[in-house]
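Chapter review: from sequence to fold.
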Amino acid sequence: MLYSLRVLLLSTSLLSIFNPTCGSDASTSDTSPFKASFGSSPAPFKIDVDPAFIARTKLKASLTRYAVDLDQPDFADGPPRHNVTTVRDYWVDKYDWFAVQHDLNKQFTQFTTTVTTGSPSNFTDPVPLHFVHHRSKRPDAIPLIFIHGWPGSFMEVGPIISNLTSPPSASMPAFHVVAPSIPGFAFSPAPLHPGMGPKEAGQAFNQLMLQLKYTKYVIQGGDFGGVILREMAAAFPDHVVSVLSNFWVVAPNATDLERYAKGQTSADENTTIKNIESYETNLIGYRAPMETLPLQVAIALTDSPVGNAMWNYVIMFDAVDKYVWTPQEIITWSMMYYIQGPYGGTRFYKENLAAGIFQGYILGNNYPFVTQPVAISEFPKDIWYGTPLDWARRYGNVVVRNVYDRGGHFAAVETPDLLLHDIWSFWGNASLSNVGVFCDKL
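The token string follows.
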């Protein structure tokens, strides 16, 4: 009798779980929590997230179950408990998404549209995109596309966008700035089929620029943006004039490693190899599950807003120099993944691996050669810091190498002054960066 009762209770529970009419989340699980439409041409967009979703998110944050820390240094195994509790408590007691949403809508002029990847391409689905577009009042402004990475978003352009469109001096170049969200990130819906990797994202972004009537443009990017810009420049030499990368990764080759073992490498080469080895030893663990089983990771992250925030934060923490992330920033950055679901972001790593980008020694060496002028900016808390100019030139026409003693992976956020200097300096030199082609169009 007891066994039968247990079976009955279990059966009833299973019916409740699998009956789509029961359970508060069942009927809304596949519904986008933000309002958006994606037509065939650019249309204004305002971030508008469902209040019920925000309420559920805060409730889930309040119910966070903490891991038990070991007696060891902070971040030895991941974010320590006191960081987790701080973020959780701020989320529950102080964080106001709707104030954040209001501020983002006020700061950024945003749009949505739909593009294709063009031809030839292995990805044939239409690509809905969210993007920021700020036009300069200057008649000589240069079209620039700013491409973010993971765990960042379009928000990274925030600290520099006003100075790009309206520089403090007329002698500095001004820019029309386009900052798209990679498909699956922020408010660009995730693809429904495999195949949207860095090459395809670059194809979609080129189509976006053409849709905006920018037939020639320049690119700035870091992290995945630094990967995508290489694909774009190589694929579209008639459209991409020049690029500035703060993530121009070059893996050491067999000869480099042999010279390193014999103590024959330069100081810069030693720094680069040691940085990459440290990354492999201490940090690369986050990448493997996203490159192999991104859905497995996304299932856990989708159900835990604090877990998702901490998954992103471990990289945010390690990749900055002296920048201190506030709980407000940690949560808001994580919301750019949590709102539509983190799967699109985690899966982009698998697409990178499938494209051969991160294969080989740590960071891979399957990058196309960029013939257009390239400027690179190296900051000490980035994994490729120290990359020598001759290494950088193995994969492109690198004409400028800027090396700094402060800053990290998120240059636009942590050291906007340095990144702006490099942008103005490089594209302010028409002959070096080839932006003289824009003068012909005035």
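Two observations follow directly from the output. Residues 2-18 form the longest helix (17 residues). The longest strand covers residues 370-378.
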